[in-house]
User: Fold these one by one.
Assistant:
Number 1:
Amino acid sequence: MTANKKTKTALDVQETLKNIEEQFKMFQILNENGEVVNDAAMPDLSDEEFQELMRRMVYTRVLDQRSISLNRQGRLGFYAPTAGQEASQLASHFALEKEDFILPGYRDVPQIIWHGLPLYQAFLFSRGHYVGNQAPEGVHVLSPQIIIGAQIIQATGIALGMKKRGKKAVAVTYTGDGGSSQGDFYEGINFAGAFKAPAIFIVQNNQFAISTPRELQTAASTIAQKAVAAGIPGVLVDGMDPLAVYTAVRDARQRAVNGEGPTLIETMCYRYGPHTMAGDDPTRYRTADTDSEWEKKDPLVRFRRFLESKNLWSKEKEEEVIEQAKEEIKQAIKKADETPQQKVTDLISNMFEELPFNLKEQYEIYKEKESK
Ligand SMILES: Cc1ncc(C[n+]2csc(CCOP(=O)(O)OP(=O)(O)O)c2C)c(N)n1
Ligand SMILES: [Mg+2]
């Protein structure tokens, strides 16, 4: 028998796999030129809602640029750039309600800001300050998760809790293409499927996990198809198309609150910047050609064209949003600067509801030191 001879087997397993994979076609409503290519799926949003979604995306692009500069000036700490992912992030969030719970990854700060986390607290999170992790009462968000995939199991738990309490709300969690390889990911989606937990798992496939390309992440041709093994719906969506992302999440939310269980959504997107500001150099693992190919798909350009064709957007409007963003960022960073520096006693007293004896001891020691 020659090594490369095709093995003849009783079942055509390759054909079965191919048939399944072919089902996962990319859902799109707006093409790269901002033209509607799927009118039947067009969401029923008002003119004001279209404009608000654009406003949030433009604002977030400014926030990204300013955060990068502030980081370079040493005025921010940890920061994971978001440019290129605005449709995946803001349009998915746009389909949610205030009572929904968001469990973000480290790159998903924009969604929790739009869910109600004050901007200065997002800056404090970046600086590792505990106040950045204390969402105001009624703002249903957790702190951005640094441990890849950990938020997925937590989202399933929160979703199940909401279901048991009879809440008509969902838990939404975000991870990346890399996150979809974690054990936590499979455990989370499987458990949510088995218990019909009202969860939405969004995988922002930005093509890289730091420098590891998507092709090395999994043999599966889509991440969306991983839903099949969990027995839940999986959707592959153009993550640079705000209307497609919005619609996929809106439908998933509807199914979840109707008791139909969770959905896995893969948003196909790209991050323009480096992985984080901690020093990686994307030119070592991506080509300028790939970058420019994705820049042509830009969610802001696409949505701007769409809105302009409906006379809903203008250069002046955009300038206004940019100026407002800059001003609010300035105020927020000032407020972050004015927040008292954290002390060791703050760290200890925020860790547990009731301190164990050893921490009580340490608390007293540090309290004494800090009083001097
Ligand atoms: C459990 C765990 N393993 C490894 C890391 C180190 N790490 C940080 S980000 C990252 C890549 C994640 O890529 P992806 O899930 O695609 O998200 P993206 O950064 O592209 O948004 C890795 C491996 C980590 N934070 N946690
Ligand atoms: Mg990634």
Number 2:
Amino acid sequence: MPATMTATGGSAGPPSGDGAVAGTGEVLLGVRNLSIHYPIAIGTVRAVTDLSLDVYRGEVLGVVGESGCGKSTLGLSILNLQKSPGRIVSGEILVNGHDILALGPEDIRAVRGPKIGMIFQNPLTSLDPLMSIKDHFIETMRAHDPKIRKGQIIARAEAMLEDLGIEKRRLSEYPFQLSGGMRQRIMIGLTLILDPELLLADEPTTALDVIVEAGFTELLAKLKRKYNLTVVLVSHNLGLVAEIADRIAVMYAGRIVELATALEIFQDPRHPYTRGLMDCVPNILLDRKELVAMPGSPPDLVNESPCCPFAPRCPKVFARCLAETPRLLADAAPAGAAPAAAASAPAASAAAPRAVACFLHERTN
Ligand SMILES: Nc1ncnc2c1ncn2[C@@H]1O[C@H](COP(=O)(O)OP(=O)(O)OP(=O)(O)O)[C@@H](O)[C@H]1O
Ligand code: SF4
Ligand SMILES: [Mg+2]
């Protein structure tokens, strides 16, 4: 089965940034050694395995990977939400240094919404068809501040609609009266109205047509600036991520296998899986005539073997890959790596070193 990555508008890249890591260098979100399992009848799905990741205040981090690699499971865990029967078996999720997995129900409510807002994988079904848009804003804001006056909410909702490019008269309408793109923007507005520091967007454009999808990154970039957001954008759509991400985490089989700036990923992917993904999408940076489908499919997460999870599909597999699992380590360019490629990918800041989980990129000293 070929890889299922896609590109917006038919081509990926070039990334919009200059390749440097955006943000302040302050870690807003730290994921530490996170493992999440789904116990099912035939065994245990290891959806996320020993995953660690820092998200810096002010950056846009893209999380990409094929279907089933654990992107949504990771995203939900950041709010300590798990799809049944999932459970976090180990690890920490630190928001501003505080482990949210240790919070009680009241304290976690103060994080979900006001600190971290999430747009779910299928946002269009999240609106109540029997409630006007205005009532959605009232319900959302009163859930966090029961005493807030209606007039105050309406004023803020009207200003938010203006930022979203929607006429304020739409506030009195119902979801069925709005287009798919408008409903998606309303979902973003309902998230941002609580003024979160971090916005988590899980496949925010999957339910939209390509024309509406094309305007999404522009809107997100504008909102990010206006609301001082840090963004984690989860997507299987490399083209979409390339348009806005400062850094990209590539996931495979519940692990991060490469973490680098968007420009590094697009100009010089190091992990063989990342290279395979890049070969699957049109890339206007490279003068490439043919797309190459990646052979095989992701591994069974129930019956994992102690080898590199990518080994069965890897064109560079060697003996050690079949006996051990590589860890995500600061990248060491493999012997013989083209100096031109290394030079054209700006170095990531010291706070966010490039990392790869592949024996070909392990330091030997
Ligand atoms: N509720 C569940 N019960 C059992 N297994 C699950 C459940 N939800 C997800 N999984 C499994 O966990 C793994 C990771 O799934 P997840 O939905 O996190 O992947 P994803 O990368 O978001 O995929 P997609 O791109 O299709 O949204 C997959 O093997 C999936 O089958
Ligand atoms: S560790 Fe081996 S199998 Fe895994 S990606 Fe690297 S070369 Fe390929
Ligand atoms: Mg998902």
Number 3:
Amino acid sequence: MASRSGLRYWPRVLAASLNARPEVAAPPDVTFEDEGVGRCRALLAAGHRVMVGVAGGSGSGKTTLAQELVQVFGDELSCLVMQDSFYVDQSARFDGDGGSVNFDHPSSLDFELLEGQLRALRHGVSVEVPHYDFATHRRLSRTTPLQARPLVVVDGTLILDSALVRPLFDVAVFVECAEAVRFSRRLERDVRERGRTPAGVHKQFHLQVKPMHDEFVEPSKRHAHLCVAGTEALATSMHRVLEQVAARQPASL
Ligand SMILES: Nc1ncnc2c1ncn2[C@@H]1O[C@H](COP(=O)(O)OP(=O)(O)O)[C@@H](O)[C@H]1O
Ligand SMILES: [Mg+2]
């Protein structure tokens, strides 16, 4: 939920929709467990490799779902790849939030590198994931080794828009969420965790996040095998994703 002080940065249209927006449940904190977990765990342990893409708008609930998936299966069976690690270094061009650098446009991301790393992980080959620093908009020189695991979960706004990356998913999930809810969640996160000002978050949302969402993210939903709601109980989304994981034959790529 947006803090009361954050609300004054909302444009009139969002403020008006605040009353009408759906109830936002408290953030989920219970680790999911049902029979689907056991079924998938057995498949993964038997050598079944599955790549799950979790797409959707910023603030929709992608990372919550993606993290729950890898938490449930653990480090031995699963690994998580974040689209956010694959931003192109834009430190030389950056001139302020909502300025000339559009971080929400597909060209801000190195999908060729992401594709290469996902193909390696599919084949059981470990990778060195790049590090992107949100404070300086820089790709750091250090990388983080990531061991290939049977279940690879990929989290990102534009992973279903990218024609390079999209075919790699055995299960492509899109997390749907109303704009007003996504904005309030993003405002809170960027101020608290990314050192942004409310005014900067507001400007970036309306100049870049929203137009890019409408142009690229939302239309990419048509490529999803499964849509879940980013405001429903996490257990409900998990159950539906695990059904798909258990049912899919891995793509031969
Ligand atoms: N199903 C849900 N119900 C209620 N709150 C949720 C749900 N999923 C995510 N949230 C909350 O919404 C916020 C944004 O979620 P996050 O997963 O970080 O979104 P994204 O990765 O798509 O930007 C977080 O505070 C998270 O706890
Ligand atoms: Mg996220």
